[in-house]
């Protein structure tokens, strides 16, 4: 599933390829399933229009246009983007294609069709409707403290709440808690101010690391928990066994379910 790092990579790709080009035509393969507005309205708004800039909140991407309306993109389970010229290069799962007058095409890809495209007049209005908190990539200690204030739930599921930190997915939450050395089931209201600050810093640093690696998880630093998750899901071998231990204290990484989600953690470091 595309998480914040992947969506940020998509955003930067669109910035580099698809802005300031007049849209000649729009195709949507399955508008009833993947389009949140009427197809005729979608085409009318975009024909002759241009994408002028991008914006992202969590895993939600916005394409601003020269004439006002904003295209919203949510990538579901398998969403991706492509930019190409020749019809022969059309990706297999291109569900929506924006044809530019210059001959190039921007495509929204989605093999499982859980992604959605729509329109909004205002990012702030959309954000309020979806109850999205401040973007996780720039989340401040003050914003995180406000989001967690007086909450007695475990910290792990709260990090997955898009009202608190939009863009934090399951593996990211595990990594953040590991780097911040906090136990996943720790009640949020028991966190001390320095721990909240450590947590906010870890959220930003983990996301920045993932984006710099273009979400290729095997390229993450060796002290990241993600490697234990990866090897745990692979056939056990002498090589993989080493990855199943904490790089800080060498305690074996454990797995349990917190808030119904598989959770990896170090029982030695995360107290």
From TrEMBL:
Domain Formamidopyrimidine-DNA glycosylase catalytic: from-to ranges: 2-115
Residues annotated as domain FPG-type: 237-271
Database matches in PROSITE patterns: FPG_CAT (PS51068), ZF_FPG_2 (PS51066)
Catalysed reaction equations from the record: Hydrolysis of DNA containing ring-opened 7-methylguanine residues, releasing 2,6-diamino-4-hydroxy-5-(N-methyl)formamidopyrimidine; 2'-deoxyribonucleotide-(2'-deoxyribose 5'-phosphate)-2'-deoxyribonucleotide-DNA = a 3'-end 2'-deoxyribonucleotide-(2,3-dehydro-2,3-deoxyribose 5'-phosphate)-DNA + a 5'-end 5'-phospho-2'-deoxyribonucleoside-DNA + H(+)
Claim: Ubl conjugation is one of the keywords in the record: no
Pfam families reported in the protein's UniProt record: Fapy_DNA_glyco, H2TH
Domain of life of the source: Bacteria
One record GO biological process: base-excision repair
SMART domains for this protein: Fapy_DNA_glyco (SM00898), H2TH (SM01232)
GO molecular function terms noted in the UniProt entry: class I DNA-(apurinic or apyrimidinic site) endonuclease activity; damaged DNA binding; oxidized purine nucleobase lesion DNA N-glycosylase activity; zinc ion binding
Cofactor: Zn(2+)
UniProt xrefs under InterPro entries: FPG_cat, FPG_Glyclase, FPG_N, H2TH_FPG, Ribosomal_uS13-like_H2TH, Znf_DNA_glyclase/AP_lyase
Annotated EC: 3.2.2.23, 4.2.99.18
UniProt keyword terms in alphabetical order: DNA damage, DNA repair, DNA-binding, Glycosidase, Hydrolase, Lyase, Metal-binding, Multifunctional enzyme, Zinc, Zinc-finger
PANTHER family linked: FORMAMIDOPYRIMIDINE-DNA GLYCOSYLASE (PTHR22993)
Subunit relationships: Monomer.
Family per similarity comment: Belongs to the FPG family.
Protein's recorded name: Formamidopyrimidine-DNA glycosylase
Organism (species): Rufibacter glacialis
Gene giving rise to this polypeptide: mutM
């Amino acid at each position: 599933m595309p998480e914040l790092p992947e969506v940020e990579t998509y955003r930067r790709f669109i910035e580099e390829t698809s802005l300031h080009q007049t849209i000649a035509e729009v195709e949507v393969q399955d508008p009833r399933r993947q389009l949140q507005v009427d197809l005729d309205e979608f085409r009318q708004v975009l024909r002759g229009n241009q994408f002028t800039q991008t914006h992202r909140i969590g895993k939600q991407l916005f394409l601003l246009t020269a004439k006002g309306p904003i295209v919203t993109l949510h990538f579901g389970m398998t969403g991706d983007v492509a930019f190409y010229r020749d019809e022969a290069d059309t990706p297999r799962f291109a569900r929506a294609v924006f044809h530019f007058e210059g001959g190039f095409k921007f495509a929204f890809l989605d093999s499982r069709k859980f992604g959605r495209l729509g329109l909004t007049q205002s990012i702030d209005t959309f954000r309020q409707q979806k109850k999205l908190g401040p973007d996780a990539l720039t989340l401040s200690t003050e914003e995180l403290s406000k989001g967690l204030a007086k909450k007695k739930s475990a910290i792990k599921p709260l990090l997955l709440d898009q009202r608190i930190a939009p863009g934090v997915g399951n593996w990211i939450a595990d990594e953040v808690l590991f780097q911040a050395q906090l136990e996943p089931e720790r009640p949020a209201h028991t966190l001390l101010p320095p721990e909240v600050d450590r947590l906010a810093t870890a959220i930003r640093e983990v996301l920045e690391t993932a984006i710099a690696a273009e979400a290729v998880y095997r390229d993450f630093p060796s002290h990241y928990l993600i490697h234990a998750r990866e090897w745990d899901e692979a056939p056990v071998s002498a090589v993989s066994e080493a990855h199943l231990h904490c790089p800080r204290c060498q305690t074996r990484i454990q797995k349990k379910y917190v808030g119904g989600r598989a959770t990896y953690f170090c029982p030695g470091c995360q107290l």
